């Protein structure tokens, strides 16, 4: 009988909310906005996260990446670090168990000119023929670099998929055409396939030239930012090779025994992990902001519920005279608050999903927008919790009304 | 429970503390009301008749004394038990009707049955019967603001009757009604008395008091007159 009585209180709560539908929806606006932002952000981040993780996975687990690294604090003290071409050559010469070694030299701010059209690049990359295979990155047209390009320092160039956006005159099959890269003539040998954008930024607005050609043209500027990618023959040897690399580079960079490394050796798993760590932090920050907005929404609900209790004082008095107990009234008003919050949660999920889908449609390279079940459950759970937390005060105010005073309330 | 008495008050007092002063709203009242009695409680404002009504209606507890309602000592019950007593034993009729504004006549009459835990179909049937008894068949889906004053008070009477209470407590039931509607409502009370209902009317109108079979006059928190008409 007690249960059926609570169900009746629930029905009365729904009727009361329905009687003031517009106000109910406006009241829950705070919750709607809060939940919609959680769902939108979570769904978009899941999409980005999946697309970036996939890129790391393309590298394979038997690869290592070496890059110059100075902690932010030391950077502020003016310390700089770099890997040199002779570092690259020394690694290739002395470390055993390496299947493939690929040097990369990045150069920003370059431009490509073709038939009077000019494309400003994100970067130009100097590397060798194995780079493509190592990164699962292949030409869609023509060919990639071949070993002899590097050996003979040929002035050949492979264009990124987005370069032709600016170079309007470029034929559909650009191999054999000549372009000017920062004033030097290069022969186009291929055009890469398009890749997913990272966080909405295109990765395809770039060109690739042979490593030795880049060194030859850029001279010491080529050493400003060199990375080295290594594929080992046997995954099990990864720790030993890492150790050997560390010893070699520390010796070459003359780092004292207690000094810190000025380079960083990471496996693709570690890079994935550190990326996921960043994502987790972002998620946490977003969750905190959303949590605050839900609490603000809850305060809004509490406010309106308190007004509603005052407004319905006489009604509460009548119900008490007719035999409603304190718990009947408490449950009815608590149910109203929880239903309001849940309603806000549901509307918020729908809007958030819509926003996520919209962003998904605007950024075509993003994988399909999926709202994870945990986000939905968490939103609904948190909304109900807010409803209970902020519904308690108005509900107990209603339940504790003295029936005589309530009946005579004007 | 002697001699079929529904209500037995012995030495009931109700004191209020106001600004360090003790106000004796009721001061040692003894009263016994039998089943099927038609009683008027009269008195000027401030005489203590409202306090009397609150105590009889189990909306308030006496400071001192014992109150036995239909064989149960209700003077020291907890709030939730008092709620149940109100639901089971008392039907209220108020001067300003006190209907739930956004509920239909039928829903208003059903309300006390919800707190009693009556099943859905049964309570609808009971409420329809009660509305029929007060002559409101065909009006059950009207909202209070679609009904006249007299009709609203009939809904309130139906609501009081629907639980088949031991007593009906009417607080100035015709205070907001014109004279012809007043006559209608009083005729309805007469009919209920014929059917064996116990009715207590709190009023300050001598005409209505005269219609009752017994009139109790309260002044300064004490019963000063208890006469049979």
Q: What's the β-strand tally of chain B? A: 10
> What is the C-alpha radius of gyration of chain A, as a whole number of Å?
32 Å
Shape, principal axes of CA atoms of chain B: globular
Greatest interface (CB-CB under 8 A), with counts per chain = A-B, 24 and 25 residues
Tell me the span between the first and last alpha carbons of chain A: 34 Å
Summarize the structure.
The complex is a heterodimer of chains A (410) and B (229). Chain A has helices spanning 2-19, 21-27, 29-59, 72-76, 85-94, 130-134, 147-151, 211-218, 238-252, 268-311, 313-321, 326-362, 373-399, 403-407, and strands spanning 63-68, 98-108, 111-114, 117-120, 123-127, 139-142, 156-159, 178-181, 184-192, 206-210, 226-232, 263-267. Helices cover 55% and strands 17% of the residues of chain A.
Describe the protein in words.
The complex is a heterodimer of chains A (410) and B (229). Chain A has 2 domains: 2-55 and 274-407, no CATH class; 82-261, no CATH class. Helices cover 55% and strands 17% of the residues of chain A. Chain A has helices spanning 2-19, 21-27, 29-59, 72-76, 85-94, 130-134, 147-151, 211-218, 238-252, 268-311, 313-321, 326-362, 373-399, 403-407, and strands spanning 63-68, 98-108, 111-114, 117-120, 123-127, 139-142, 156-159, 178-181, 184-192, 206-210, 226-232, 263-267. In chain A, strands 1, 2, 3, 4, 5, 6, 7, 8, 9, 10, 11 and 12 form a 12-stranded mixed β-sheet that branches. The model of chain A has no long low-confidence stretch (mean pLDDT 86). By secondary structure, chain B is of the alpha/beta class. Chain B has one domain (5-228): 3-Layer(aba) Sandwich (Rossmann fold). Helices cover 35% and strands 30% of the residues of chain B. A 6-stranded mixed β-sheet of chain B has the order 6-7-8-3-9-10, with helices on both faces. Chain B has a 4-stranded antiparallel β-sheet with strand order 2-1-4-5, with helices on one face. In chain B, helix 4 packs across helix 5. The longest helix of chain B is centred in the last third of the chain and has 16 residues, at 179-194. The chains are: A alpha+beta (410), B alpha/beta (229). Chain A binds chain B through residues 1, 4-5, 8, 12, 15, 19, 314-315, 317-328, 403-404, 407, and chain B through 54, 57, 59-60, 79-80, 83-84, 86-88, 92, 94, 98-102, 111-112, 114-117, 159.
């Amino acid at each position: 009988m007690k249960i059926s009585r609570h169900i009746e209180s629930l029905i009365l709560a729904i009727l009361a909310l329905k009687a003031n539908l517009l106000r109910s929806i406006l009241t829950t606006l705070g919750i709607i906005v809060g939940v919609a932002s959680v769902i939108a952000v979570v769904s978009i981040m899941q999409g980005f996260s999946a697309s970036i993780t996939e890129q790391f996975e393309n590298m394979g687990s038997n690869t290592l990446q070496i890059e110059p690294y100075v902690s932010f604090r030391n950077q502020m003290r003016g310390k700089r670090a770099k890997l040199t071409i002779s570092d690259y050559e020394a690694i290739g010469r002395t470390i055993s168990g390496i299947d493939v070694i690929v040097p990369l030299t990045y150069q920003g701010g370059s431009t490509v000119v073709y038939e009077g059209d000019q494309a400003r690049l994100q970067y130009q990359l100097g590397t060798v023929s194995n780079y493509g295979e190592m990164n699962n990155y292949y030409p869609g047209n023509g060919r990639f670099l071949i070993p002899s390009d590097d050996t003979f320092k040929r002035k050949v160039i492979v264009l990124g998929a987005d370069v032709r956006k600016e170079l309007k005159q470029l034929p559909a099959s650009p191999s054999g055409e000549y372009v000017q890269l920062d004033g030097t003539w290069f022969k186009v040998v291929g055009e890469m396939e398009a890749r997913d954008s990272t966080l909405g930024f295109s990765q395809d607005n770039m060109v690739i030239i042979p490593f030795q050609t880049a060194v030859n043209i850029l001279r010491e500027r080529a050493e400003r930012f060199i990375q080295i990618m290594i594929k080992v023959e046997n995954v099990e040897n990864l720790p030993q090779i890492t150790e050997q690399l560390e010893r070699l580079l520390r010796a070459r960079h003359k780092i004292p025994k207690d000094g810190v490394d000025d380079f960083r050796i990471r496996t693709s798993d570690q890079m994935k992990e550190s990326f996921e760590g960043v994502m987790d932090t972002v998620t946490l920050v977003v969750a905190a902001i959303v949590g605050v907005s839900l609490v603000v929404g809850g305060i809004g609900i509490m406010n309106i519920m308190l007004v509603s209790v005052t407004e319905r004082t006489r009604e509460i008095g009548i119900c008490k005279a007719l035999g409603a107990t304190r718990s009947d009234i408490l449950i009815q008003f608590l149910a109203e608050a929880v239903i309001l919050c849940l309603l806000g949660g549901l509307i918020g999920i729908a809007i958030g999903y819509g926003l996520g889908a919209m962003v998904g449609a605007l950024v075509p390279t993003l994988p399909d927008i999926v709202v994870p079940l945990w986000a939905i459950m968490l939103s609904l759970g948190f909304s109900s919790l807010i409803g209970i937390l902020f519904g308690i005060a108005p509900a107990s105010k209603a339940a504790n009304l003295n029936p005589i005073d309530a009946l005579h309330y004007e | 429970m002697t001699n079929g008495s529904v209500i037995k008050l012995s030495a009931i007092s109700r004191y209020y503390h106001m600004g360090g002063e003790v106000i004796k709203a009721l001061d040692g009242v003894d009263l016994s009301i039998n089943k099927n009695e038609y009683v008027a409680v009269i008195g000027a404002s401030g005489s203590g008749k409202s306090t009397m009504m609150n105590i009889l209606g189990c909306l308030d507890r006496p400071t001192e004394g014992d109150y036995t309602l239909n064989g149960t000592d209700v003077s020291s019950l907890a709030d939730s038990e008092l709620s149940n007593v109100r639901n089971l034993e008392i039907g209220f009729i108020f001067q300003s009707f006190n209907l739930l504004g956004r509920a239909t006549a039928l829903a208003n009459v059903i309300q006390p049955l919800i707190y009693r835990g009556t099943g859905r179909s049964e309570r609808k049937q009971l409420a329809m019967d009660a509305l029929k008894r007060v002559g409101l068949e065909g009006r059950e889906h009207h909202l209070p603001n679609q009904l006249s004053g007299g009709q609203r008070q009939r809904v309130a009477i139906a609501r009081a009757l629907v639980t088949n209470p031991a007593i009906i407590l009417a607080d100035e039931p015709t205070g907001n009604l014109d004279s012809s509607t007043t006559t209608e409502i009083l005729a309805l009370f007469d009919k209920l008395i014929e059917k064996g209902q116990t009715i207590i009317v709190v009023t300050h109108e001598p005409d209505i008091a005269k219609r009752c079979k017994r009139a109790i006059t309260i002044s300064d928190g004490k019963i000063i007159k208890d006469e049979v008409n």
